[in-house]
Structure formats: C-alpha cells, structure tokens
Design goal:
A hairpin with a 2-residue loop joins strand 12 (149-156) and strand 13. This protein has helices at 95-105, 109-123, 181-185, 188-194, 196-209, 213-220, 309-321, 324-327, 332-344, 349-370, 377-389, and strands at 2-5, 8-17, 23-28, 31-32, 38-40, 45-47, 51-52, 55-60, 68-71, 76-82, 139-146, 149-156, 159-164, 169-170, 257-265, 271-274, 286-288. Helices cover 32% and strands 22% of the residues. It is α+β, with helices and mostly antiparallel strands. The chain has one domain (2-389): Penicillin V Acylase, Chain A (4-Layer Sandwich). Helix 1 packs across helix 2 (109-123), helix 5 runs antiparallel to helix 6 and helix 7 (309-321) runs parallel beside helix 10.
Length: 396
C-alpha cells in the first residue's frame, strides 16, 4: 500500500508466502559489469547492464529475486501474486526477479516501470513460484514508488497495464484492479479464494488515514477485526487468515503466512523499516539503510537454524500463536515502546537488530513458561505438520 500526499510518500508491504519459507534481508552495493556479462536469475539468465544500483532486499531464501526492497535513489517496489486466465508459462523471469532487476537498474519510479515492462515483453514470466510446491505459478502486480509518487503495474503473461497513483491512497493485493485489463484477464475463482478485495479495502483505508510510518506499521499488523491491529487473527479452515493484511497460516485451500514486512517513509529523505522476520504482529520493525549493510547470521533455508534471524524469531511467533490473546499482551507494550523510540530517534541498524534479538529472546522465555494453547485441533495439527517439516518439533 502507498499514500501519496503533499507531504510525501509512504509505502508498506507484507510478504505472504509459504509458512516455512524463510526470508532474508540482504544488501548489494552498486557495481560495474563487463560488456556481454549475464545475470543468473531464479530460473533463467538475462543480459546484465553496465552499472547496477546499490539495493537492500527482502528475499525468499531460494530465489534470486526479492519480494520488496529499495535502491540508493529512493525507489521502493513491492509485488503481489495475481491470478489470471493466462496459461502457465515455461520457466522464465519471476515477478520477484523483475522487481530486483528494476531496483538494480532504475533511478526513479518511471524508470523502474520501464525496466519491468521491457523485460516482461522480452523474456516473459513463468516457472515455479514456490520451493515446496513447484507446480504453483502466478502472474504479478507491482507497486512502484519514489519520493515524487507511485505507479501500479499489473500483468497477465506478457501483457500489462499501468496506472499512476493520483488518489491519496492505493494498494494492491492478489487480484487485478486496472480496467479494462482486469475484466479481460482475471481469474475470478482464485481471486475469491484469496479474499484479496477484503484485504485491499482495509489497506487502502489504513493508508488513507496514516499520519506517518507508525500508522503504516500498525496497518500491516491488522488482523481484520473491529479493533484493527489490536485484535487477534481470525483463521478460516478454507484460507487461513487471508481476510486481513497480517496473515497467519491455517487454510486447507490456501495456507499462506506473512513471512516479512517492509515500510518506507519517502517524505523527508528516505527512511526504511523492516522486520526481517515473519508475522509483523510479533515482530519489531528495525531501521535499515541501503548503504548500511549488517551481518545477520547465516542465510536461512526452509529448515530451522538457531543462529538465523528469521528462524530464531519463528520460535517466538509460533509460541505466541498458541494463545495470541493471552500471550501477545505480555510483550506488545514493550514492542510498541521500542518502535516508538526508534521512529523518533533511529539507532544504527546494527544496534537495533542487536537490541531486538535480546528483547525477543526474553519474550520467548516468558511466553514459553506460560505454555498456553487455545487453538482448535485442526489448526494445531496443521502447525504441528509445519513444525515437523521445519525440524522444529519440541522447540516450543
């Protein structure tokens, strides 16, 4: 979601993916490349350009591309899966590859849109979009922003439509929205299963009302109740908690999870905030910078690693979800106090991530002592299965 106003641009995104698909923050400096060189993306190679920008990315562990990120020029991009009537293509560029390539090659939002469109027309999109479900594929939409505004790009195969954001707020979800392109290419059944219209209504309302990055962060924590981010997740056996932005796994047809979150304030300079962890409701947003790379431990995979930032937090997240209403309040106020202080006076990224590690370790110790469990049997079984696949049984 994005807010475009006279005072600047605010951007926020939750990345919803497979529950055990860890996501990592990584930094790549500006670079020069030899003529004729190629870049290996997730499934295919494409020609490299002579110079690439410095970027910070939030990337699924097994992909070359990224779900969201920013570059040294203040361009930020997020993508969403969209389900269309186009046939699944052969392995080509993924939407996440297009996003990273645009950040590496463009100096403003319009330039990033041009990169996405050019590469889409030349190489197409396609191939497995999930490590654990290789038959799962989709097309993509993008929200591209810079300090001067934002543009939406929606795709179906090699076809596309663009829309400059002229209203105060705009968001994208798992459905096409730009007419008549949307009516011509949408898959109505899959859109309905993803509950994308409900989420888009909530995120646009939140973006419209936001006064700054704190409200955008709160919007990413929204579970869809009347109390907004203050209420717990409502999990359906059909599609989990997909009716709201803060997604928790639990569905039979769709069992997706918010695996990372990202916020950008482009109002006065560029201020970036990222979790580097799943579930924004149990995470702390830390300041990050394109030019401030930090060491975050070993790169994660889809199996538990104690020294991995993402998996270390996953223990806290999964313990809390056993009884969200009782366990999150044990550390929610400390989470909010920390973020409020950091938004007012951001520490260095290294200091923030170190402090967050200590805080989350203490919170995990606290909630683990309570050992509360209030979820229905079917939901416990689903998460037990996920824990088993991730080698996490017995860790909570």
């Amino acid at each position: 979601m994005v807010q475009v106003s006279a005072t600047g641009v605010l951007f926020a995104k939750n990345s919803d993916r497979d529950p055990n698909e860890s996501q990592l923050l990584e930094w790549h400096p500006a670079a020069r490349h030899a003529p004729g060189s190629r870049v290996a993306c997730t499934h295919v190679e494409v020609d490299q350009v002579q110079e690439t920008n410095a970027v910070v990315l939030s990337r699924p562990w097994w992909m070359w591309g990224a779900e969201m990120g920013a570059n040294e020029h203040g361009v930020v991009i997020g993508n969403e899966a969209v389900f269309t009537n186009e046939p699944a293509g052969e392995p080509a560029l993924l939407g996440m590859d297009l996003l990273r390539l645009a950040l590496e090659r463009a100096s403003d939002a319009d330039g990033a849109v041009a990169v996405i469109v050019d590469l889409l027309e030349r190489h197409g999109q396609g191939g497995p979009c999930s490590y654990e479900r290789p038959s799962f594929t989709y097309d993509n939409s993008f929200l591209v922003a810079d300090p001067d505004g934002a543009v939406v790009v929606e795709t179906a195969g090699r076809r596309y439509a663009t829309e400059r954001v002229t209203s105060r707020a705009r968001s994208i979800s798992n459905g096409l929205t730009i007419e008549p392109f949307a009516s011509e290419h949408r898959d109505k059944t899959r859109e309905q299963v993803t509950a994308c219209r409900l989420r888009r209504t909530r995120t646009e309302t939140s973006a419209r009302q936001a006064a700054g990055p704190a409200e955008m962060i709160a919007a990413l924590r929204d579970h869809g109740g009347d109390g907004g981010c203050g209420g717990g997740p409502r999990v359906s056996p059909i599609n989990g908690a997909l009716k709201a932005p803060c997604v928790h796994a639990g569905g039979v047809l769709v069992s997706t999870q918010t695996t990372a979150s990202f916020v950008a304030d482009l109002s006065e300079g560029v201020a970036l905030w990222a979790t580097g962890t799943s579930a924004p409701c149990t995470s702390i947003f830390k300041p990050v910078g394109v030019d401030e790379p930090i060491e975050l431990g070993p790169a994660p995979t889809n199996r538990y690693q104690h020294e991995s930032l993402w998996w270390r937090h996953e223990r806290l997240h999964r313990a809390t979800m056993a009884d969200w209403a009782a366990l999150l309040p044990r550390y929610r106020h400390a989470r909010d106090r920390t973020e409020t202080a950091w938004l007012a006076d951001p520490p260095s990224s290294a200091e923030a991530f170190a402090a967050a590690r200590d805080l989350e370790a203490a919170w995990l110790d606290d909630v683990s002592e309570v050992a509360s469990e209030r979820r229905p049997i079917w939901l416990r079984r689903l998460w037990r299965s996920l824990d088993r696949k991730a080698d996490m049984l017995g860790l909570r």
